[in-house]
């Protein structure tokens, strides 16, 4: 298996406060990696550092074989085109319609004619079960719909790696399951590597990916869902057996 | 309602001990403790019917209150149905608050200076980046969305026409009235036209237009960018390989630099018109004489100086508004702060630039 992401001794600080304290991890191409942990453990920070939104204090991040620390602006932009990011609250551009949001990366980074871009937009919307919403504004959508549009936008350029920050958080169980199913379909049908940040047990179970559990800025567990459920680790056990005392 | 009374050395608390009557009960108990001293108090709670968290905490702290009056206190048994809330609302031990370390004056002063230098450097970097991107994007428009410039120009320029027109018309009229009052003493009424033409085109037109634009569009730009940062839209652009400064700020810079001089031309015209109306109808100068005097006093240099100034005013307003938006922190309060500081800093920037231009040209 080829490596999609390789992280070595990654350290990130917010001001004086260390948030990531030496993370080492690898994600293989085509796998689903789930970064999990309690609130404030550094999950979203890790995702933002991998995607280049936060600069690390120390350490190395290699995405698709490219060391992100040594990239100039142009190379960084080229790498970004190979990645898709779905933000926790969608982060749709509120001044653009749903269709324009999805078309944006296509308009900016390709020479496709408008008719073809429109076709792709409609296809992407259909894939997230939101046909006919391209002319609506993001403010007219529910939280679940915004997340699905964000997923469609993240998929616009057919990325090699898809990053999702809490894709099912705050959604009703039906919509959350639909989004998880969508991610599974994208992974199985298109072979996309997916990195998901979540702390939703049901989602973790459904996605059945390789888990990377963080606690206080460090990786405390790496393995499958089954292994995590059987683990007696001080942090892992209470997470998968909430309310039960560790044996 | 609550009933508090004393029989011997027994304090009776009955009915309700809840948030709404706690203050009254507390005062009554304190009064009773001080008026009827006793070494040992018993508290009878047999007829207490309602108790909430605040009431339960009060009961827990009643012993301490008795101690203040040099007494001890024994709580009687609570009715069965109130025992769970009494147990639930057990007071937590007092937390020792760490004393903040005292930072010496020189260290604080040094930190402030360092922060100021850091912010100034950030501002200069952003000014350089935005100016460079704005010029570079004229030839390379890939990073700019189609129609973005037109949308911004409409919002910043066309939609500002009525308010700027109205303000400048009134300012022209007031200027004419004020100068007429002085010049009339010397029989030089006609020179109102000269004062008006030169004053409006070189100073009042560009300055008032810039001030209006700073309040109207500078604040809007800061608010939009701050909100985009808050809702992670700027991060989303970065992950789509789109540089936010180019994508969001450059069309605004173009629209500002293109439309503010045009607004200034309109403002000059309307301002002079306002003064002319006063000259003709209030001072009784013939329209032909007034217009001839205006034309004879105006030089192309004055008009061009005003327009060049207005373009630079537009540039500084945009740079400051973008800087305030990008550096916003906090939630709704932070957006408000970004807007206020964008407008105030823009006004300072405009006046400083105006002074620099006056030193340069006059």
Strand content of chain A: 25-35%
CATH architecture of the domain at 3-82 and 159-240 in chain A: 3-Layer(aba) Sandwich
Label the overall shape of chain A: globular
Strand tally of chain A is 10
Distance between the termini of chain A: 36 Å
CATH topology assignment of the domain at 3-82 and 159-240 in chain A: Rossmann fold
Number of domains of chain B: 2
Q: What does the largest sheet of chain A look like?
A: 6 strands, mixed
Order of helices and strands of chain B: EEHEEHHEHHHHHHHHHH
Mean pLDDT of chain B: 91
Regarding quaternary structure, what we see is heterodimer
CATH class of the domain at 3-82 and 159-240 in chain A: Alpha Beta
Tell me the number of helical segments of chain B per DSSP (H or I, 4 or more residues long): 13
Class computed from helices, strands and strand pairing of chain B: alpha/beta
Care to describe what's here?
The complex is a heterodimer of chains A (247) and B (362). With 247 residues, chain A is α/β, with parallel strands linked by helices. Chain A has a domain at 3-82 and 159-240: 3-Layer(aba) Sandwich (Rossmann fold), CATH 3.40.50.300. Chain A has nine helices and ten strands. Chain A has helices at 43-50, 73-80, 98-109, 114-127, 143-154, 173-190, 201-207, 225-230, 236-240; strands at residues 3-14, 17-28, 32-36, 58-63, 66-67, 83-86, 161-165, 193-198, 210-215, 218-223. In chain A, the strands form two sheets. Chain A has a six-stranded mixed beta sheet, sandwiched between helices. A four-stranded antiparallel beta sheet of chain A has the order 2-1-4-5, covered by helices on one side. In chain A, helix 4 crosses helix 5. Chain A is globular, with a radius of gyration of 18 Å. Chain B is of the alpha/beta class and 362 residues long. Chain B has two domains: 2-88, Transcription Regulator spoIIAA (2-Layer Sandwich); 143-361, no CATH class. Chain B is built from 13 helices and five strands. Chain B has helices at residues 22-35, 53-60, 62-68, 83-88, 105-139, 148-156, 161-183, 192-230, 233-239, 244-281, 287-297, 300-326, 332-361; strands spanning 2-7, 10-17, 40-44, 48-51, 72-75. In chain B, strand 2 (10-17), helix 1 and strand 3 form a beta-alpha-beta unit. Chain A binds chain B through residues 48, 51-53, 73, 76-78, 80-81, 83-85, 87-89, 91-95, 104-105, 107-109, 153, 163, and chain B through 142-143, 145-146, 224, 227-228, 231-233, 235-243.
């Amino acid at each position: 298996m080829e490596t999609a992401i390789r992280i070595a001794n990654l350290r990130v600080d917010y001001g004086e406060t260390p948030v990531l304290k030496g993370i080492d991890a690898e994600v293989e191409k085509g796998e689903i990696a789930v970064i999990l942990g309690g609130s404030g453990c550094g999950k979203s920070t890790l995702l933002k550092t991998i995607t280049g939104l936060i600069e690390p204090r120390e350490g190395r991040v290699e995405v698709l074989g490219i060391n992100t620390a040594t990239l100039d602006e142009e190379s960084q932009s080229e790498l970004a085109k190979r990645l898709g990011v779905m933000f926790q609250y969608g982060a749709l551009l509120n001044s653009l319609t749903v269709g324009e949001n999805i078309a944006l990366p296509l308009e900016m980074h390709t020479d496709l004619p408008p008719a073809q871009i429109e076709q792709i937009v409609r296809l992407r919307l259909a894939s997230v079960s939101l046909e006919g919403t391209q002319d609506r504004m993001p403010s007219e959508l529910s939280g679940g719909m915004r997340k699905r549009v964000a997923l469609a936008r993240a998929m616009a350029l057919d990325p090699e790696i898809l990053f999702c920050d809490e894709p099912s958080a705050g959604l009703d169980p039906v919509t959350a399951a639909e989004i998880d199913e969508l991610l599974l379909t994208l992974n199985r049908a298109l072979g996309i590597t997916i990195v998901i940040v979540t702390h939703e047990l049901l989602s973790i179970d459904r996605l059945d990916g390789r888990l990377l559990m963080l606690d206080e800025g460090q990786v405390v567990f790496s393995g499958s869902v089954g292994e995590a459920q059987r683990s007696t680790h001080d942090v892992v056990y209470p997470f998968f057996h909430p309310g039960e005392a560790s044996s | 309602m609550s009933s508090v009374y004393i029989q011997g050395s027994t304090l009776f608390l009955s009915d309700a001990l809840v948030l709404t009557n706690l203050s009254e009960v507390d005062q009554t108990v304190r009064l009773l403790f001080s008026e009827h001293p006793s070494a040992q108090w018993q508290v009878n709670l047999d007829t207490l019917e309602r108790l909430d968290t605040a009431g339960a905490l009060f009961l827990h702290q009643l012993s301490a209150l008795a101690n203040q009056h040099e007494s001890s206190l024994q709580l009687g048994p609570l009715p069965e149905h109130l025992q769970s809330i009494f147990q639930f609302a057990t007071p937590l031990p007092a937390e020792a608050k760490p004393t903040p370390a005292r930072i010496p004056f020189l260290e604080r002063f040094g930190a402030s200076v360092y922060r100021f230098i850091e912010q100034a450097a950030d501002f200069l970097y952003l000014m350089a980046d935005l100016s460079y991107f704005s010029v570079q994007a004229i030839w390379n428009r890939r990073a700019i969305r189609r129609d973005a410039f037109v949308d911004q120009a409409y919002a910043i320029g066309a939609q500002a026409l009525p308010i700027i027109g109205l303000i400048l018309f009134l300012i022209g009229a007031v200027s004419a009235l004020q100068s007429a009052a002085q010049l009339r003493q010397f029989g030089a009424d006609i020179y109102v036209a000269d004062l008006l033409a030169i004053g409006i085109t070189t100073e009042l037109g560009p300055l008032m237009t810039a001030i209006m634009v700073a309040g109207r569009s500078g604040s809007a730009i800061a608010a939009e960018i701050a909100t985009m940062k808050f809702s992670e839209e700027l991060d989303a652009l970065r992950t789509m390989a789109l540089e936010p400064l180019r994508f969001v700020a450059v069309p605004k810079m173009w629209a500002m630099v293109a439309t503010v001089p045009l607004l200034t031309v309109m403002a000059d015209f309307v301002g002079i018109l306002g003064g002319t109306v006063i000259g003709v109808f209030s001072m009784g100068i013939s329209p032909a004489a007034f217009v001839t005097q205006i034309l004879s006093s105006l030089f192309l240099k004055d008009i061009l100086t005003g327009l060049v100034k207005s373009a630079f005013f537009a540039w500084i307003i945009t740079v400051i508004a973008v800087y305030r938006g990008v550096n916003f922190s906090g939630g709704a309060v932070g957006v408000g702060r970004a807007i206020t500081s964008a407008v105030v800093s823009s006004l300072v920037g405009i006046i400083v630039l105006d002074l620099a231009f006056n030193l340069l040209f006059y």
